[in-house]
Amino acid sequence: MRRLTMALAAMAALAMGSAPLAAHAADAKKAEITKDQRDKGMKAAPAVAKAAGLSCNVSDAYFIGSSKDKQDIYEVACSEGLGYILLAQGTTVKAYDCLATKSQPTLTCKLPGNANAAAGLKPIVAQAGMTCTPKDARYVGANATTTVYEVACQEGSGFILQTPAPGAAAAATVAEPCAATMGQGNMECTLTSKDQVMAYINGLVAKSGHQCQVSGTHYIGADKTSGDAYYEVGCGSQAGFVLDTDKTGAYKNVISCAQAAGLGGCTLTDTTKVATEEVATYTKLAKSGGYNCDVTKYRPIGMTDAKDEVVELACSNRPDGTVAVFPSAGDGKARFVDCVRAGQFGPNGACKLTDLAPIYAKYSAGLAAKGRSSCKVSGARFLGSTKAGTDYIETACSDGNPGWVLEMTQSDSVQTLLSCGQAAGAGLPCQLPTNMKK
């Protein structure tokens, strides 16, 4: 089973810029754009934009003027989105977008095509896979490879957006919801209010179907592979949980605090209370799934690739216990396997709450039903599963004689019996010590 790998956003490592054009602001003129400026700009700007490494089909441009240190300054509007102020000196060109220069009164973009700089982010927002109509935006900062913006959306809570800097190597554009940046200094959203952030979290809770008066929220981190983000939700005196969202911030799933141990666990909920409540929940889930178990203890094992919860259950009304697979989808069917067959979930699947003796007795009975009553099973090992849903189990016999490989159905009956020699020929070699004797 793939373990969730958590990583906090690395955006805070960026060197945040402040006034990139301060040295040139005094040289700019506030006069209206003349025909000569526009003619000169339209002639030169396409080549200058290309030299800056921009993907920009110039739709409008003008020559602002020259600075005291002999840099030619242009403004360009691009049909793709954001416009730029360009500083050219020979073959060296620096580009600052219209959001970055917004705080520079004398070098604020003036072209009609750049009048709404926030709207110019639409193509970049789309690259990040976000559904958002930008209503406001701010330049957060940049380094040599990455530019960072905050975007406020007409649809609700906004996000922090990372995109490759002009001329930098192509890289994925990434959006981090404002709920993930709370308390992150300059990286915290200022265009989206905390009330809007909480409205976003409450919306996720509503989609989860859980009854919860949200008393707090905590961003846990993101999965490096899938981009899923995880938020812990506190529910006052009730048990909280973890929300799983996809890389666009949309709701995917709920993870119980017990299951969230692999993500670092819950910090906003009384874990003792959670344990008591979840014992009752697991009892109900087990019985509704057809497994009669009055749960006394449980142990989270992990999640399947389909995000189904895998948990070991100890029962007061039966000695064998089980490893249960509870589906993430509400209409899915729960599945239960014994503590040997739980080897399919990796090393962590091995039971720790129950004794294996009742399971060995079950295998002994299965062998007896196949005419092999002389073998009293003293050990067993999971070998593998078939596409049909049966499992191969290697067994060892207490008398030291060679054991057998059982093909078990989902109803725990023995479908096929193989000797270790036959199993080896099928690519399932026995490895238990008493089966390795020459």
Keywords for this entry:
four-stranded antiparallel sheet, disordered N terminus, 438 residues, five-stranded antiparallel sheet, alpha+beta, 18% helix, 4 domains
Describe this structure in words.
The chain has helices at residues 22-25, 35-51, 122-127, 194-208, 271-288, 357-369, 420-425, and strands at residues 6-7, 58-66, 72-78, 81-89, 92-97, 134-142, 146-153, 156-164, 174-177, 216-223, 229-235, 238-245, 251-256, 295-303, 309-315, 322-326, 335-337, 377-385, 391-397, 404-408, 414-419. It is elongated, with a radius of gyration of 31 Å. It has four domains: 1-187, no CATH class; 193-268; 270-351, no CATH class; 356-438. The protein is of the alpha+beta class. The chain has a five-stranded antiparallel beta sheet with strand order 1-10-11-12-13.
Short description:
With 438 residues, this protein is an alpha+beta fold.
Topology:
Elements: E1 6-7, H1 22-25, H2 35-51, E2 58-66, E3 72-78, E4 81-89, E5 92-97, H3 122-127, E6 134-142, E7 146-153, E8 156-164, E9 174-177, H4 194-208, E10 216-223, E11 229-235, E12 238-245, E13 251-256, H5 271-288, E14 295-303, E15 309-315, E16 322-326, E17 335-337, H6 357-369, E18 377-385, E19 391-397, E20 404-408, E21 414-419, H7 420-425
Antiparallel strand pairs: 1-10, 2-3, 3-4, 4-5, 6-7, 7-8, 8-9, 10-11, 11-12, 12-13, 14-15, 15-16, 16-17, 18-19, 19-20, 20-21
